[in-house]
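Standup notes, protein team

Yesterday: finished cleaning the Micromonospora sediminimaris set.
Today: Cyclic diguanylate phosphodiesterase structure.
Blockers: none.

Input for Cyclic diguanylate phosphodiesterase:
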Amino acid sequence: MSSPVEFLELLAREAAAVEFEGPLVAARSAGLPAERLAELEQAKTVALRVRALLERRRRRESELSGLYDTVSDLAGLRDLDEVLRAIVHRARHLLGADVAYMTLDDAERGDTYMRVTDGSVSARFQRLRLPMGAGLGGLVAQSGAPYVTANYPEDERFHHTREIDAGVGEEGLVAILGVPLRLGSTSIGVLYAANRSARPFAREEVALLLSLAAHAAVAIDTARLLAETRSALEELSSANTTIRAHSSSVERAAAAHDRMTALVLRGGGVEDVAAAVTDVLGGALLALDAEGRRLAQVGEIDEPDRAEIVEAVAASRTEGRSVRRGRLWYAAVVAGAENLGVLVLRPEGEPADADQRILERAALVTALLLLFRRTVAEAEGRVRGELLDDLIARPLRDTDALRSRARRLGVDLDAPHVLVAVGDDAIAATGSARQRVLSWATTYASTRGGLAAARDGRVALMLPGQDAGGSARAVARDLSRITGRPVTAGASGPSTGPASLAAAFREADRCLTALGALGRAGQGASSAELGFVGLLLGAVDDGGDADVSRFLTATIGPVIEYDARRGTALVRTLEAYFGVGGSLARAAEQLHVHVNTVTQRLERVGQLLGADWQRPDRALEVQLALRLHRLRTPAG
C-alpha cells in the first residue's frame, strides 16, 4: 500500500523527479479514498521541495568546491595560461554549458581578443576580435556589466556585426552569458558561458560566473605583478652585474694607469707598455711606428693589411678614440698633428668602455715614450754629430780632448773606422724628409758604435770596421729603402786615429762624386774599388791636380775645345766608341746616329789629335783622359 514513507525512500536513493509520481499512480490504481490521495499528493509535493533543496545544496557544494580549487590554483600560481584554462574549464563544467571562453582587452588596438576557450570547435570563433560595444561581449567589455541572452542571434539588444555573427554562427552558439573581469573599477576582459540551444541563465549562474571572473582577474593581476617583480629583479640583477663589471673595469683602468705612469717615470719602453696592456686586458697587442715597422708585440697576432691600418689610424685620429675593425681594435699614437704609429689590440673577449680607455691611455703613453726617445736620440745625435764635425774639420784641434769626448760616447778613435759619404740625392727633400734621413743615419751609426753628421750638403758616417765598400753598399741599400729613391754612398778607409779622419772623409766624398761621374748613381763603393780612378783621386789629394789638368789638355784638349766652340759631340762619340770595343756600328746604335756620322766624327778627332790617336799607347791615354774628364765634369 502506498504511503508517505515511499517518498522518503525515493529521496534516499536520489530518484529522478518523474519517479515521485509512482506512489500516486499506484494509490489511484488501488482505489484509495480521496483524503488518502490528497495526503499522498501533499507528501509528494514536500518530497519534491526537499529534493530540489538537496539538489541546490549539491550544486552549491560543487560550485564552492570549484571556487576552492580555483583559489588553490591561484595560491600556487606558476603559469597564467594554465590557471586561466582551468577557470574557463570550471565555468563550463559548473554551469553545464556547451562552451566557455574568455576575452581580454587590447589597450593598443581598442578592442578585445579571444584569450582562452573550452569546448570550442570553430577556428574562426577562436580568432575573433570584438570591437568595443559590438556584440554581447563588446558591450560587456565597454560597460563593465554582465549581459545574458537566451537566443543571441535573435536578440536585437546587441549591435551585430558580420564577423562576430559569422564566428558565433560557425560555433553554433545560441544562449550566451558574459560577465566582466574587473580589477577595482577597471574592466580588463569578459568571461563567457554559452549553449548551442536556447537556454535561460539563472541568477545563481550569473553570480557563480561573476565569482569565477573575479578569481580570473586576480590571477591576471597576480601574474602581472609577478612578471613586473621578476622583470624588476632581472633589471636589478643586470644593474648589479653592470655595476660589478664597471667597478672591475674602473679597478683595471686604475691599475693600468698606475702601472703605465710608473713606466714613464722609470724610463720604460714601448715593449713594457704592450706587456702592461695585455696583462690587464688579455689578448695580444702589436705596436707599429708611423712607417708600419714593428715596435713591440705581445702574444700571437697577425699584422693587418697596410691599407686597413692606414684607414683605421685615420678614423681613430678623427674620432679621437680607439676604433674597431673586425676582431681588432686600433688606437692611433699621435702627438699633436703628427702621426707616430698605432696600437693594434686583439682582445680575448668584448672590451668594455673602460677597457677601450685603457688602450687609448696606452697609446698616449706610447706617444710620450716615442717623443722622449726621439728627444734623447736627437740630443745624443747632436753631440755625436758635433764630435764628427770636429774630427773631419781642418785644422784639427786638440786630439786628446777629441779622444775624451769620443770615449764618453763609447767610441774608440784609435780603432779602425771607415768613412761613408751619402750623396745629396738622399737629402734633396726639405723639412721632415731630410730630418728623417739624418735621424736614420744617427741611429744607424750609434747602434754600431759610430758617429754621423750632416756636412756641406752630405751626410757623413764614421763606422767601426775595415770593409769600406761593404759599409757603403749597406748604407746605400738601407737608406734607399727608407727614402724610397736610389741613394749613392762613397766610402774610404779603414782609417785609424783622429788625424787621419779628415783626409778619409775627403776621399769618401770624392769617391761619391766619382760614382756619379761613372754613371753608378744609387750604388755604394769605396775609393779602392774604383781602380785607377781611385789612384787618381789619391794623386789629386796629394796636390797633383795641376798635373791632371795638363794631362787632360795635352791628350784630349783640342777635342774638348772643339765641342765647346762648335757644340759638337766628339767627346761623347769617343766614349761610346771605346765603350763598345771600337765597333763603329754598335757606337752608332748607342748614339742613335748613322755609321757614316760616327766615321766622320772620328775622322775629325784624327784631324784634331793626330793620325796615331788609335795606336794602343795613345788610345790608352785618350781613354784615361776621357774618364778623368768625366770625373771632373760629372754633368758633361
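Follow-up from PR in the comments: The longest helix spans residues 203-265.
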